Amino acid sequence: MSGQLSAWLFSDRGLYRPGDTFNIGMIVRTLDWQRSLEGVPLQVDIVDPRGLRVDRRSVRLGKEGFEELSYATSEASPTGVWTVSLSLVRHSNQVERIGSTTVQVKEFLPDRMKASAHLSTELSEGWVKPTALSARFNLQNLFGTPAAARRVEASLTLTPAFPAFRRYPDFQFYDPKRAKEGYSEALGTQTTNDQGDAEFALDLGKYANASYRLLFVARGFEAEGGRSVSAEVSSLVSSRDYLIGVKADGDLDAIRGEAKRMLRLIAIDPAAKQTAVDGLTLVLLERRY
Questions:
Q1: What is the pLDDT of residues 160-174, one digit of tens each?
Q2: What is the pTM of this model?
C-alpha cells in the first residue's frame, strides 16, 4: 500500500517560541481516493534541529484519513527547524515515509527601535516633482530618544504606473510621460545624525523624463549590527504641471446607432485639485464598422 498512499502535514502557525505547543494536522489519502484507510498503522517522528528524535508515536487512521497531534516544547528546547514526519508501518515493522512538514522554533526578540520615512515633498494625494527630491529616514529608540550613529541602508524602486486618484474615482487620466520600464537602485549606506536622521538624495534626473510610482525603503540597524527595523514611503512622481482626466457616461468602445455619449473633462494640478489650463486642443477620433 505504501506506493498508493500520500500524506499532507501542516502546522497551525509554523513559527513558535521555546515552551510553545505546536499542533500538526495530517491528511492521508490513497491515490485513487477510493480505498478505506481506517486502521492503517502509521508512525510519527519528531526530530529537533540537532537531528535528535525527541518523540515517536503510533497512529491508527480513522475512516476519514485525518489525524492531529500536539507536541509541547520546553523553555530549554533548541531553536531552529524541527521536522515532523509520517511513515507507513509494514507488517515486518519496516517503515516508509509518506509525508513530512517543518516548523521553526525561534526566540522572539521585541524591536528596540522604531523607524519612519518621508520624502522632502509629500502630498496626501497627487504627485510630487522629481527635481531635488530626497528621502529622510528617522530612527528612534523605543523610549523616545534619537538613535544616533546607526547604520542605514536604503533602496529606490521606480515602476510604471497609471495615475488614479481617490478624489476622482470615475475619471481616467492620461499621462503622455508615463514610464514604459522600471528601475531599481541601491542607495548605499549612511549613518544617522544626532537627531536619528539619515538623508538620501534620490537623483531622479538620471532616469527617463517620465512618470513613475516611487518606492523608498530603508533599514536601520542596531549598534551591534545584526537586527534592524525598516520603513518605507511611496508616491507618484512626475514632472507634469497638470493631468487631463475624462469621465464618460457609457462605454466609448462601441456606440450603437444614434446613441450619444457625454464626456466630462477636467484638469488637475500636482495636489490633485482642479485647475484651469489654456491652449488645449480636443481631437475626436471615430472608427466606423
A1: 888 888 899 889 888
A2: 0.62
